[in-house]
Amino acid sequence: MKLMRNEDLERIGFNYVLSKLNTLSPYGTALKKKTGIYPKSAHARLLEELENVGTFIDILKKDRNFKNEILHALHTFRDIKNTIRKLHTTDDVLDEVELFEIKSFIISCEKLRTAIKKHKIKIGRMQIPEMTAELKLLNPDGIILGSFKIYDTYSEKLKEIRHEKLKLETELLKETAEGKISALRDKRFQTVIKEQKEEDKIKKTLTEKLRISHEKLKDSAEVVGQIDFVMAKAMLAHENSCVMPEITSGSVISIFDAINPEVRDRLIQNKHEFVPVSIELSNGTNVITGANMGGKSVSLATITLNVYLGLCGFYVFAKKAEIPHLDFVFFLSDDMQSVSGGLSTFGAEIVIVKEILELMKDHNGFFALDEFAKGTNPHEGRALVRSFFEYLTGFQTISLMTTHFDGVLDERMTHYQVIGLSRADISEISDQISTKTFGAIQKHMDYRLERTSWKSEVSKEAVRVARMLGFEEKILNRAQRILEDKSGK
Amino acid sequence: MKANSLKELSGANGVNAETFIKRFLKEYKVVSFAGIDKNSGKTTALNKVISVFQSEVTFGLTSIGIDGEETDQVTNTPKPRIFVPKGTIFATARNLLRSCDVTKEILDVTDINTPIGEVIIIKAHSAGYIEISGPSTAMQSRIVIDKMKRYGATKILVDGALSRKSHAVPMVSDCVIISAGASVSPDMTAVIEITGNLLNKLKLEQLQDKIILKAVKKTDSETKIVVFNTEGKKVYKSCTNSFADAGRSISDAANRIFINGAVLDSSVESLIKNIDRSKTDIKKVQIIVHDGTKLFIKPDLMGLLKKLGIGIRAVNTISVPFITANPHSPQGHSFNKSEFVKALGKKTKTSVIDVVGGDQYEANA
Q1: Looking at the complex, does the CB of residue B196 fall below 8 Å from at least one CB of chain A?
Q2: Most-buried pick from A37, A55, A159, A203 (CB within 10 A)?
Q3: B169 and B67 in one domain?
């Protein structure tokens, strides 16, 4: 299905969320890198994933030890996929380092399995296979040690050879006569060769026995990855009070008090708060209009982010969310510099939108687009936007658009407006004018979205915002007069 | 015992090599070994130190900044291998495991990669020959050394190199033993001169001024040269080799110059040439370097700096408990061993031992 481009994922703040997702094992990290929307055919798996995250969150809330135990087990894993592949696809004999790695892997698996079992977690297919026999093979002497050697226990012959080797070394230490030292060295050298030969034989046997278990090892690595990934999602959700999205079979997206963690964290640094976004969207055309600096783009990104997260099997950054299982999520912002590739902004936009329209013909998704045709002349722009919005009403895909243009909506469309400065106390704003800062605007701007009639006019707050930022009075006064004088002369 | 007492008799000060080495190295936990050249007897010195301490410590062995070839590719002479006692912990590259003939227990596979495989930490369950090739950076070496300590090593020996790229030795070890050998030149005076110059560098005075030290440590790795004023503020900073500009910015108020990385003749020359002597008392100027191994300036320029009164200070210094002298060269020529030991000691004002022949020189004796 149509993939979100990396720059779009960056813009909606998805990459930021991923960066906060701390997988600890190479297997979990590999899954994290592959994150994408669950296709409709994997609907059951999506629900299962969300439930698993829920299960982990429940235990995180109840038991403080759980986190430490799981994380402690997870962080000991090293990537042994190549060794497992070698077992499967070649006849090569594993060397002691590879045997060590498999042993460490099995010990880590056992640790994780014990922790999971202890907390009585039932997590569907996420079962690490038992590998007691394999561990016994690589740890023949009872007490489980994290290290590995070709143990004397493996062969009586090896034990004898090593005994001989040690004996020769003791003799060598005591000997002072040059001739005898040289003879002892030769003898020792012969023993070393015998030792290596016998070790090679044992490595071969061990490899053959492990080869039978390669499927088990492979499965374990996969399950470890899943547990790691789910655990990371659960911790992130727990720390951010995220909720489980309800994945529906309907065609309405409903999100209550959604936030965008990247924007939130940036605002916190500047001692501001993120104003949560709530919205209900139906299939067809949904439009957000509102003041400049009213946070339309942030709202668009926040909604897209949470819809996308939900469909990727994450808890969402909201108080409540209903999301239909869609085929695709696509987001296109007005900042097209990076994708223009020789085309003008408008041209690049058209090329991409064309692709999405094609996709919409046989797939239902979510399509967010910030200020279509912004860069064109207002006359043609308005006509294009109006006709484009009309066209989108005919699809199952839920389209969410923002625009500045007036008179482009009709009764088939859902209209949201940023409350903006409309309800702010004018006299108080005037007091703030002297400061001429973004802060003054941020203080009075109401970023919330409000559902309104399609007939409501697009708010006109550009002049006011410019004034609050200390723009040249002469220009603003003249602009005001032009606006008041409808003929504009 | 007989051999030892013979050596004792031939020793200049009457103590045997074991006593000598033990006395000088007892207190150090991390000892590095470096030669003034290939074949100058570094591995022989290492083996000797191992045999001296083997009954009382658990060794941890690794290398830094060198590669573990069995024969010296330049002279095609076989390199002596390191012989370790049972119980030794060592860190080496994965592909060298086969060349280590001890009975091995794999303790750890680190994330540190080398061109010949990851660095593996091994415990020797028998005595035997090992080949070591450890990490190349100071940070990685620290990790490996810490791990070996955790696995029980009580004395760490680092097979090192003092090359232009590797300033890691002074950063990870408590002391360094320098090996000087006849292989460098058939002319004994030249060997002594080279060793003397190296020791001069290593024995640089440490930078004591805490304000400047703090400022220097904050300098990022991209910056090549900084001129600080007495309060540690940067008055000049460059990421390129613009030593002339740096020189021009020097005055009595700002006369501490930190050179980050290798210090070459040309750099120092253009730096001092551009100092405005009318506003600067040249005797108060100080050049600051990471450590002595970063200095690549000719002895006559060093002499000139000394004459002018320009001081050189090091951020990190390292002690050299003794020098080992190898009077034989694999190319065939040899020096008179007692003469060589004595001359080296006099020139470097450092204790010297020929670990094979037994001759010794004790500084301050």
Answers
A1: no
A2: A37
A3: yes
Pair (A263, A224) in one structural domain: no
ipTM of the complex: 0.79
Q: CB contact, 8 Å: B7 with chain A?
A: no
Distance from the Cα of A147 to chain B's closest Cα (Å) equals 5
The encoded tokens of residue B122 equal: 């091994």
CATH number at residue A409: 3.40.50.300
* CATH number of the domain residue B218 falls in: 3.40.140
On chain B, the residues whose CB falls within 8 A of the CB of A196 are 101
The verdict on A112 and A177 lying in the same domain is no
Residues 6+ apart with CB under 8 A from B157: B31, B32, B33, B46, B49, B50, B59, B60, B61
CB contact under 8 A, A176 and B3: yes
* CATH code where residue B65 lies: 3.40.50
pTM, 2 dp:
0.81
What is the maximal distance between C-alpha atoms in chain B? 70
Q: In what order do the strands lie in the sheet with A398-402?
A: A328-332, A365-370, A398-402, A284-289, A414-420, A446-452
Q: How confident is the model at residue A487 (pLDDT cuts 50, 70, 90)?
A: very low
A464 and A353 together in one domain: yes
In a domain, A7, yes or no: no
pLDDT at A334: 62
The predicted-structure confidence for A174-208, as pLDDT tens digits, reads as follows 888 888 989 999 999 999 999 999 999 999 999 99
Contacts of B3 in chain A (CB under 8 A): 176
- Asked if A42 and A80 sit in the same domain, the reply is yes
Copy the structure tokens of residue A299: 């709202």
Query: A121 and A85, same structural domain?
Result: yes
Q: Are B39 and B8 in contact (CB under 8 A)?
A: no
B106/A contact by beta carbon, under 8 A: yes
Chain B CB within 8 Å of residue A166 CB? yes
A192 at interface of B, judged by CB pairs closer than 8 A:
yes
Which residue out of A80, A98, A108, A147 would a mutagenesis test of the B interface target, given it has the greatest number of B Cβ atoms within 10 Å?
Answer: A147
pLDDT digits (tens, 9 = 90+) for A262-315: 999 988 888 888 889 999 999 999 999 887 777 888 899 999 999 999 999 999
CA atoms within 13 A on the CB side of A139: 20
Q: Which residues of B touch A166 (CB under 8 A)?
A: 86, 126
| Residue A303 contacts residue A400 (beta carbons within 8 Å) | yes
Asked if B73 and B100 sit in the same domain, the reply is yes
Q: Does B23 touch chain A (CB under 8 A)?
A: no
Mean pLDDT in residue range A31-52: 94
Name the residue range of residue A127's domain. Answer: 21-131+213-235
**B99 and B123 co-located in one domain:** yes
Does the pLDDT value for residue A39 go beyond 80? yes
The number of beta carbons lying within 10 Å of the beta carbon of residue B105 is: 20
State whether B270 and B220 are in the same domain. Answer: yes
CB contact under 8 A, B105 and A195: no
Nearest Cα residue in chain A from B85: A169
Kindly write down the DSSP assignment for every residue of A99-121, as one continuous string: HHHHHHHHHHHHHHHHHHHHTT-
Q: What is the pLDDT of residues B96-144, one digit of tens each?
A: 998 899 999 999 999 999 888 999 999 999 999 999 988 888 889 999 9
In this structure, are residues B16 and B7 in contact, taking their beta carbons and an 8 Å threshold? yes
- Per-residue pLDDT at B361 exceeds 80: yes
* pLDDT at site B71: 46
**pLDDT at res. B2:** 36
Which of B3, B107, B127 lies closest to A169 in CB terms? B127
Determine contact, residues B89/B58, Cβ cutoff 8 Å. Answer: yes
Whether residues B27 and B134 share a domain: the answer is yes
- B324 and B309 belong to one structural domain: no
pLDDT tens readout for residues B144-185: 999 999 999 999 999 987 665 556 777 888 999 999 999 888
Q: Is B101 on the interface with A (CB under 8 A)?
A: yes
Q: Are residues B351 and B254 in the same domain?
A: no
B272 and B217 housed in the same domain = yes
Q: Is A100 on the interface with B (CB under 8 A)?
A: yes
β-bridge pairing B360-361 and B352-353: antiparallel
Give the structural domain span for B131.
2-203+319-361
Structurally, chain A folds into a number of domains equal to 3
